[in-house]
Amino acid sequence: MTKKGKKIPRIKDIAELANVSPGTVDRVIHNRGKVSQKAREKVLKSMKELNYEPNVMARALVSTGKFRIAALIPDPANDEYWEAPYQGVDQAETKMRQYGVVVDKFLFDQNDPLSFKEEASKISESDYHGILVAPIFYRESLAFLNRWSKQGIPFSLFNTHIPDYKPVVYVGQDSYQSGVLAGKLLHYACRQGTFVIAHIDKEIPNSTHLIRKEQGFIDYFGENDLQKQINIVRIEISEWTNKKDVYRKFDDLFQQYENIHGFFVTNSRSYIVGDYLINKNLQNIKLVGYDLLSKNLALLESGTIDFLINQNPRGQGFMGVTLLVDHLVFKKSIEPIKYLPLDIVTSENVQYYVDKI
């Protein structure tokens, strides 16, 4: 009996429901001996109806072969941020390997839409049961999501939510709400002046998750009637590797707006703004950004960055795979959106998050 007094299903119960012999159920569960496909399907259906132990059920499910999943993610070699979801995918594959799950990773350059298209095309030309993708390029992603949808290939999304073609699940943060939170944090730290929304990324108009963050940030001040106290401006930096050019853009910004009191960086590159503030000895300017990259952590602990919003990228990769497996292998009904918590990380609590990375 379970704690709730519910009877644990026995092989005999499964056999009676499926109208087969207990021996047939045993052979299906342990994948031994000969069982007709019709009998196997009846047993699996009965196991599901009786909520039979999932890991035992999976051993029977994988008897027909392996489940091949493709993971389309940015190459961690180009950006430290993507190392965490890469590891999350690895962790999920290790956990699900006992069920016959194999995950092949296809890596693309996050700064090159053509690289995304090339890797997505490779997946489309292969035979995969499911796909996990970080669709950071909106236009390019739509074409492939449409194609996979028409082909009946289940796919899950993480990092960026594109609901147009009904993914099995989106795993990640609510980008809009994280922008609202960033606005509240900056307003908490500074009650007036000019706040800068800094987009430091390629293809910004093609990055819907960044635009949603910006809109949430702006709406916070609008909905709280703070337009008179706070002036919001934006800056786009699509080439950030040339420090001289980046600093020139920031210099121009500070010349144009004398009362800049805060920055909101919409992705993991807060350290670029932080380095500039240190270099120019600009103090008492509040800085809010995302992600626990090593450069960001150093600036958080020194006080240059005030708040980091943790997007749990490892969890995104891990759950993206496991929920897709739940759908493919266990035939579970999956909620279409899995939002992860908006964790506010400061110098005072960062140690508890670093231990989890």
UniProtKB/TrEMBL annotation:
Transmembrane segments: none annotated. GO terms for molecular function: DNA-binding transcription factor activity; transcription cis-regulatory region binding. Pfam families: LacI, Peripla_BP_4. Keywords: DNA-binding, Transcription, Transcription regulation. InterPro entries: HTH_LacI, Lambda_DNA-bd_dom_sf, Peripla_BP_I, SBP_2_dom. CDD domains: HTH_LacI, PBP1_sugar_binding. It comes from the Bacteria. Residues 9-63 form the HTH lacI-type domain. This is Transcriptional regulator, LacI family.
